[in-house]
Amino acid sequence: MNSKVTNRIALSLIVLCAVIMVSTLAALLGYILVKGLTNISWHFLTSESSAFMAGGGIKDQLWNSFYVLIITMILTIPIGTSGGIYLAEYARPGKLTSFIRSCVEVLASLPSIVVGMFGMLIFVNYFGFKFSVLSGALALTVFNLPVIVRVTEDGFRALPLHQKEGGLALGLTHWHTIKTILLPEAFPSILTGIILSAGRVFGESAALLFTAGMSTPNLDFTNWNPASPNSPLNLFRSAETLSVHIWAVNTSGIIPDIQAVANGSSAVLVICVLMFNLLARAVGKMINQKLSGR
């Protein structure tokens, strides 16, 4: 068999795999959107869910999803970026560095259900946070931390070595070089990774089943006092998110319009995750254009 035939066979297999992957994704997204878009309305997005009657919405669950996500990213970004900078710039090759990287790899490979059980044992029971926004955010922080560490480390390692050497040659300290030269250059890739990880966290359900809970109080959006039990900003209330709501409706729901609520909620969740991915691409492209035009 000559090289041209081998090349054609390899190219055909690659194209076939790409077509199968794209077709599967398009079919899955198309099915969810076709089934769910007809059930989405302003009333559906802005009304409270119902446990018994038809016509309920997802207002509280949608708010809980974004609120848990925001708290998670507030906790994750400083720790994850600091860890990535340490591994990329300060960690010396050795047993300690290898151990840290092994820990990051293990955390990244943990199933989300295991993270949820860990969160329930530590945050819900041991620390006494109960089923709450804070417990869910802390569990998702454990789940999301290795992603941010990897993204930050890869962003720094992708930079040309002469940028770091140029800063040090000018007499700048290592930290000042990182802060003023390396971090701004690595920021586009780090930000893109953070937005993508936010979409991953937004759609998470297994880790939240055991930490944030499967119920939510009727939130009072006129009361923003964090100490109030029904306040949207209360960190210690239970918080059923959109993905958990979909699971609960399909497994134990008794409302007459189960299928409509599940389909509509799934479509909203998919649209939000797609928006995170599109936003990551748009932001990364915009920042790269600005940097290349400097």
From TrEMBL:
PROSITE patterns per the UniProt record, alphabetical: ABC_TM1
Pfam families: BPD_transp_1 (PF00528)
Membrane-spanning ranges: 9-34, 65-87, 99-124, 260-280
Chief location category: membrane
Localisation per UniProt entry: Cell membrane
Any one GO MF annotation of this record: phosphate transmembrane transporter activity
Keyword match Cell membrane: yes
Domain (ABC transmembrane type-1): residue spans on this chain: 62-280
GO BP term, pick one: phosphate ion transmembrane transport
Family indicated by similarity: Belongs to the binding-protein-dependent transport system permease family. CysTW subfamily.
Protein name: Phosphate transport system permease protein PstA
Organism: Sporolactobacillus putidus
This protein's encoding gene: yqgI
